[in-house]
Design brief:
This protein is an alpha/beta fold and about 450 residues long. It has two domains: about 120 residues, Immunoglobulin-like (Sandwich), CATH 2.60.40; about 325 residues, Purple Acid Phosphatase, chain A, domain 2. The protein is built from five helices and 29 strands. The chain is globular.
Length: about 450
């Protein structure tokens, strides 16, 4: 059984060539006593197809009259779409969403967010090109609301990626992280502070997010994900047609987002709620990706670590038992995790062991194995690095068994963001994905070139 998600959706079905008109469709608003507030917390996400869809989301401190989005290929706009507005536990804030489809590939769109009596907020985004072209994406998790996170937002703007792949523990509104928190451990106003913090980046590029253990908010729906669903509008093409797991393609890369809470051995709150349905979906999507001639790389993201030496959470045997053999079967190129508040990268892994070295600065073929990345240094308090050759893995029953850490290639406790520069196949038929991990001040922490 999956948690209920908002189902009232506004879909733009026009070609958007700049002509005037308003789209009639399902929408929800309530009249407010005062509307003199500007739209805030603006963030974007693909609706499943990067070339032709975009979800635009924003918030207001309370209910407002007639929240709408104006859209066009010029700042004259020309098309108006009513928002789908939802509330959430513990705040007066209302979250507004517009799901756009039938957009043109490789096109800049201008949008304006407004409601009765408000000062509009404007922005723009660009859809992905129809054919593979070089692009950059950022990968990270565990951001929180703090000064370190703000530095990383500035880094994101400076590096100007085309999208961000965010692997959970977004704002820590539920500080317990086990899905069983008391009221004193929950501050849902942190969501609004988080959305305001990330807006300078997220209003211009898609932030493709998934859940971590701190998105399991006790009392907020069957799985604790109701607060996440109210604020984040991801593709609804995942397991059981949900939006916590989903997939999308950008250029020559296929992305998949999983829910590590379903597989972890570290805690039991949501373990197995999708179970075999998730594994069948994952297998089907990976097979479909590998059957496509136009895709070179596969990147999978979720929260808990398959491989990490940091002793705060270390490695999770539940992840390995459920998904590692599937990743091996379909030669997944990169797995991005968070959870441990640090940066760490493995050598090439296959069959539960390193099969080829991948030191900093190397060029490697991911046909040999998968690179596992812990990118949990986006802002939350850093976990101290303990340089040891021995760490542990959490196995079934929650036991922590010691294991050698021969899989580790690079690691640091510094706050950081990972950036990947993807290039399509050259004249020799070789595609590349170049990793650069930067500390918040722009210092290079790690680099690696993946070839396929």
């Amino acid at each position: 059984m999956t948690e209920l998600e908002p189902t009232r959706r506004t879909v733009l079905k026009a070609g958007l060539v700049g002509g005037a008109g308003a789209l009639a469709g399902p929408f929800l608003w309530t009249q407010a006593a005062s509307s003199a507030v500007a739209p805030g917390g603006v963030h974007l996400a693909y609706g499943g197809t990067s070339t032709s869809t975009m979800n635009v989301s924003w918030s207001t401190p309370h209910s407002v009259g007639r929240p709408v989005l104006d859209l066009g290929t010029t700042r004259h706009y020309g098309t108006t779409v009513h928002a789908d507005s939802v509330s959430s536990l513990g705040v007066d804030t209302v979250y507004h969403h517009v799901d756009l489809s039938h957009l043109r590939p490789d096109t800049t769109y201008y949008y304006r967010l407004r409601h009765q009596g408000s000062t509009p907020r404007t922005g723009s985004f660009r859809t992905a090109p129809a054919k593979p072209r070089a692009f950059r994406f950022a990968a990270f998790g565990d951001m929180g609301v703090n000064a370190a996170a703000q530095k990383n937002i500035a880094l994101l703007r400076q590096q100007d990626p085309d999208l961000a792949f965010v692997v959970g523990d977004l704002c820590y509104a539920d500080s317990g992280g086990m899905g069983t928190s008391s009221g004193s451990q929950q501050d849902f106003t942190l969501w609004d502070r988080f959305l305001g913090q990330v807006q300078p980046s997220a209003r211009a590029i898609p932030w493709m997010t998934t859940v971590g253990n701190h998105e399991m908010e006790n009392g907020n729906g069957e799985l604790g994900y109701a607060g996440y669903h109210a604020r984040m509008r991801m593709p609804r093409n995942g397991a059981a047609r949900g939006s916590v797991t989903y997939s999308f393609v950008r250029g020559n890369v296929g992305f998949l987002a999983l829910d590590g809470n379903d597989a972890t051995y570290e805690y039991t709150r949501n373990r197995g709620y999708l179970g075999s349905a998730l594994d069948r979906w994952l297998t089907g999507r990976l097979k479909a990706y590998r059957d496509r001639d136009d895709l070179d790389f596969i990147v999978v993201g979720f929260h808990q670590c398959a491989y990490c030496t940091n002793v705060a959470h270390a490695s999770d045997g539940g992840i390995r038992d459920r998904w590692e053999a599937i990743f091996d079967r379909f030669s997944v190129d990169v797995v991005v995790n968070g959870h441990n508040h640090c940066y760490e990268r493995t050598h090439l892994m296959r069959g539960g062991a390193p099969v080829a070295e991948a030191p900093k600065g190397a060029t490697v073929s991911t046909r040999k194995g998968t690179v596992y990345l812990t990118a949990g240094g986006a802002g939350a308090s850093a976990y101290p690095e303990v340089p040891v050759d021995l760490s542990y893995v959490t196995v079934q029953g929650g036991l922590k068994l010691p294991e050698l850490t021969t899989y580790r290639a690079v690691g640091t406790a510094d706050h950081s963001i990972a950036f990947f520069d993807v290039s399509p196949r050259d004249r020799h038929g070789v595609a590349t994905m170049k990793l650069r991990t930067l500390a918040s001040d722009g210092t290079l922490i790690d680099s690696l070139t993946l070839r396929r």
